[in-house]
Amino acid sequence: METIETQLQGLITTLKRGKYHSSRELATITFQLIEKYIATGSWKNAGELIDWLQGAKKSLSIAAVSETAPGNIIQMILKTIQEQFASRQNTNLSRNISTQISVESDLNVDYSEEIPELRSDILNATRELLFELESSSRNIAEDADKHIHSNDVVLTLGKSRTVETFLKRAAKKASFEVIVSECAPFRLGHDLAKSLAKSRIQTTLITDSAAFAMMSRVNKVVIGTHTVLANGGLKAIAGSHLVALAAKYYNVPVIVLSPLYKLSPEYPRSVKIRNRFVSPESLVDYSDGLFVEKTQIYNPLFDYVPPELISLFIFNM
Q: pTM for the whole thing?
């Protein structure tokens, strides 16, 4: 049976190699790992637990600077630990999880005090957070019928599980059309278009270059995001900025669906917020050897979308 440290090193290796499919997957794995450590770890007080979590957060952040989900999850759990510790000492703490908490700056709290009931309190609170994460898409989708109505034309891009659940929930009460931008070169939009069509939602798949031309007949844009930054901007899948600019030109509202664990305390120019570049093999053919040899090709995974292009956020709270 693998130890917790071995599992942590496995997660770090996964991040370094980029062998994961989504930030939700990373968030779930991080939650489960920390839940196991809280339940079975050798820590004796909140201080030792906080130190371990901060070390894990630093290691995960170094392993993949383009991923914010693991760090955000650990930050939420650190806040939970503070709250549970304070409740046992009858201390009132703020519950604003969107603000980064600095444990080191809280010099007036002695976290070395051993409290027998603290482990179970923290474990229960962490499991509640995990349940919120697992049900986040369903909770966001509950508001679908308030924003999508019959005869609407909705544009989205790529494939987001949250957006997919949102649109399928709206289709139970309204008949509308969805235009899916394929999100080249990854073409994740093809999978979303197939899924929506199977659910009998009128769906049209378009190339990314056609987004501006199609926007004139669109009522609203609904997209997911990788990270919501502190200034209200987005770090979203490549192509999102193009779609948001087209929507701005035609005065089409842009609705962003995001679970709370994607909220980041970092700003766009922070060294902790970086893009991720993947192989350009999907952009150029290896048969064009002479061309490739003399050309530097970048294939970024994310776009930055400034806050002035966003009309509405829908969270799972």
A: 0.85
